[in-house]
Amino acid sequence: MHIPDGFLSPQTYLPAYAAAGLAWAWAARGLRRTLDEETVPRLAAMTALAYGLGLVMVPIPGGTSGHALGVAMLALLFGVRLSFLAYSLVLALQSLLFGAGGITALAVNALAMGLAGSIAAVLAFRGLRRMNETAAVAVAAWLSVVLPGFLVALALGVQPLIAHKEDGTPLFFPFGFSITLPAVLVPHLFIGAGEAVLTVLVWRFAQARKWLPSPARGRGVGGEGLERL
Amino acid sequence: MTATHWLLAYLAAVVAVTFIHAPWFLAVLLALALAASGAARWRIVQRAVLAGLTFNLTVSLGYATVALWQGNFSAQYLLLVNLRVLLLLQLGFWFVARVNLIEACRFSPTLSFVVTLAAGQIEAFSRALRDFRLAFVSRHAAAPALPARARHAAAQAGHLLDKSVCMAAETALAMRSRGCFDDYAGLPMLQPAPQPAPVWRPRRPDAATAYRKP
Q1: Which residue of A has its CA nearest to B102?
Q2: Fewest CB atoms less than 10 Å from the CB: which of A213, B40, B54, B200?
Q3: Most confident option among A183-197, B21-35, B137-151
Q4: CA distance B71 to chain A (A)
Q5: CA of A209: how far to CAs of A218, B48, B165, B166, B170, in Å?
Q6: What are the tens digits of pLDDT across the range B83-133?
Q7: B87 within 8 A of B29, measured Cβ to Cβ
Q8: Strand partners, A58
């Protein structure tokens, strides 16, 4: 899902950096107040976790597999702010160390996957947890993949409209919405299903480890994550 | 130039490259970047080509197919977009080979801490996942079924989650023992210990003033 360097025009990535700067300031605001011996290693550990979850292969029906995002898991367990910051840092490290993603695309990738994915997951979980907690986790994980996929498809599909020569030849990404939306969204509907199964299994693991209290109390790590939003 | 200056120069170069739409100019810049990369240039080029190959090939082939079908194919566009991506990747890998990323983050102590810790833990996680994968492959003679692969992915994710929570606690202890945190922040400054109050004792008369028995 990462957009690589060189396919986004400055008209897209410069405003995205401005928006991401505000979002990073918002996410770090609460952290700076409590930047102590717990927060710094925790942020580093979450960053490494976000990176590691991106390496886990999610099985997709048909024998293929895709990469997990892990955003829903991070957002539900540790809160939107920490999830967004950790994911942004991962994207920066991935683009610099491994050439995956890119510096120009960092802001769009971070806003789509780190922020929109986390917020969608937490809101879906908050809305559905009273009906059925497992279904709420699954829907949250599915949305945390599909919504960023949709946003990434929009960011790519708008490129031929805003950055082209006078004769209409594109300067950056060449395909419009009619191609990017189905090309990005359809595979992510299936990847989202795999991510939902994975997140539910890890959620149960976390419950077995007593990281999550009984659903009746509705507090604890998951609850804390929701309150932090 | 310090590492932070290199980081700023790299970021400025990346932004500047995206404003150039002439393929010949990008080719000249790529040649300059190659010349400046020194002895490691071919290794860096190899990394850059491999990193961008999948996405670029997909986009280039897709564009060629669609544009030929619609009758508006432009070879110059293909050259432009592939040269731009290659140049950006070349600059990125050259920057990482030339500059220590952690040094470049020195302008923010917190960012340095987080990047140092995260980079170390990423290595540990990558190794753990490689072990998981090898173990999974060795346990399945045939292609594993979907439920087995789902359980395996969940076990990997659970292990990472477990490990990251433990590592955060361990790292906090290790950092504290090395004096990374100011344990006395917020406490009032130490004052010199007050002198103990003198204990009253009856004065012992000296020989001159001592009562003498008449």
Answers
A1: A93
A2: B200
A3: B21-35
A4: 12
A5: 16, 42, 12, 13, 18
A6: 999 999 999 989 988 888 888 888 887 778 778 877 777 888 888 888 988
A7: yes
A8: A66
- Is A224 or B73 the better-scoring residue by pLDDT? B73
Token pair for A107 = 């802001």
Nearest to A59 by CA among B71, B54, B156: B156
Averaged pLDDT of chain B = 83
- Chain A residues 61-80 with CB within 8 Å of chain B: 61, 63, 65, 68, 70, 73, 77
Q: A81-85, A105-109, A198-202, B161-165 — which one is most confidently predicted on average?
A: A105-109
Residue pair A115/A22 in contact by the 8 Å Cβ criterion: no
Q: Cα distance from B107 to chain A (closest Cα, Å)?
A: 16
Q: Is the dihedral of CA B43, B48, B51, B52 positive or negative?
A: negative
Cβ-Cβ contacts under 8 Å for B140 (sequence gap 6 or more) = B148
Average pLDDT in chain A: 81
DSSP three-state, residue A58: strand
Nearest-by-Cβ selection for A52 from B85, B89, B129? B129
Q: Closest partner residue to B164 among A49, A89, A90, by Cβ?
A: A49
**Reported confidence tier of residue A35, pLDDT bands at 50, 70, 90:** low
Q: Does A131 touch chain B (CB under 8 A)?
A: no
Q: Do B157 and A63 touch (CB under 8 A)?
A: no
- Give the single-character DSSP code of A96: I
Give φ, ψ of A124 to 5 degrees. -65, -40
pTM: 0.79
For residues B159 and B153, what is the distance between their CA atoms, to the nearest angstrom? 10
pLDDT of residue B156: 84
Distances (CA, A) of B160 to A6, A67, A131, B66: 33, 15, 29, 43
